[in-house]
């Protein structure tokens, strides 16, 4: 079990010495309160302001509010949550004795199981459910086995991606990141996690990434903002639970791709982990599509954007110097072990995750009545109440992070930086946590940060400097 953050000396005083306080805030009138909060959340304020204004209003980082989606068209979805928006209160969401995680991946709303083969995949299972241990151990095994080919496959696919960028850049003033990057991600994760080569199917090779994009967008549309002109987004995107048949054909092509291309992994799922073939296929697709491809499709552009800001010449110089010192210009020197020695590169990745976690909201439901402590108060949580943590604000907790709004390259370096990793949440647990069958921490937590570090190191082996702006690569200077 992941230890509670209150057990770490930095966060004082202890819960026993804190005053007990009634949770402030309210859910408003039936129907009207949730709709009002929904409009603030998506339209009038947007999530950052939605949560921060309520912190100011209630003078508390713990309060009651509503998060969309909500009635009238989402019958049975309860938008009532207790927001927990400081590091100390947020940490309770990962204590499996206090909370459970069944069907709360995106809050009380859960997309139809039709999107996942008429079954609840691992992300929707609580850690106490027997099936969770089987699938989580299967996931950990996939990562362990794929680590043998991870780095050379990554370098090969990065060569292809940046080769395409350079070709595009030679024809215009910029090279758009997203389509080429998503093809890279789909190919890379298919090869490493599934052992399946998209090139075996011309249609999948060409449009597999787009099929996953559509599958993700349709099921998650009620919970995310897509930038459509209001009020059309509220009417057309956030008011309906879209039916699976809209993406059924594409999803069936993806399941066939997994069935045909991942035979060895599927066999191991059945013989070593007692999963059925269908359970393995749909969980693999969820890992590939939602966790790996979906997560990196959000994270990687942010990472490159932080790296490539034209104002960051000093940051690039520091990172380039560390990379060249550790591995020189030879790609064969890149490895998990070598990037573990790159303190600045890893800190750059951690700081990106702190300020821009790929999944902004975390949810957990109280398994029992318990006392939840923030930095300054204790609150009574009742069994069944849904907790919601908005990580971009949690990770700007001024009582934990100095200059919390500022991107600090060296933040996670040296001894103090290593201590701060106890409070870096982005993966359903702290960075110092260990994913196991008994918790819900991301199985790939460590390999995600190492892969991001490898990408940064690769860039500074290939280039002396780069510039990214507005979702495009705008200039490169080849390594000399």
Low-confidence stretches: 1-13
Query: What's the helical proportion of residues?
Result: 40-55%
The major pleated sheet works out as:
5 strands, mixed
Strand arrangement within the widest β-sheet reads 1-2-8-5-3
Radius of gyration: 22 Å
What's the shape?
globular
Mean pLDDT across every amino acid position: 95
Secondary structure: number of strands = 10
What class would the helix/strand composition place it in? alpha+beta
Topology:
Elements: H1 32-44, H2 46-58, E1 62-66, E2 80-84, H3 87-90, E3 99-100, H4 130-171, E4 175-176, H5 178-194, H6 202-220, H7 232-236, H8 248-261, H9 263-273, H10 277-308, H11 313-327, H12 336-340, H13 343-355, E5 361-366, E6 370-373, E7 378-381, E8 386-390, H14 391-394, H15 414-420, H16 445-462, E9 463-469, E10 472-478
Parallel strand pairs: 2-8
Antiparallel strand pairs: 1-2, 3-5, 4-10, 5-8, 6-7, 9-10
Looking at this protein, list some descriptive labels:
3-stranded antiparallel beta sheet, alpha+beta, 10% strand, 480 residues, 16 helices, 5-stranded mixed beta sheet
How does this structure look, described?
This protein has 480 residues and is of the alpha+beta class. 48% of the residues lie in helices and 10% in strands. The protein has 16 helices and ten strands. The strands form three sheets. The chain has a five-stranded mixed sheet with strand order 1-2-8-5-3. Helix 4 packs parallel to helix 16 (445-462) and helix 6 (202-220) packs across helix 10. The protein is globular and about 60 Å long. The N and C termini lie far apart (49 Å). Residues 1-13 have low confidence and may be disordered.
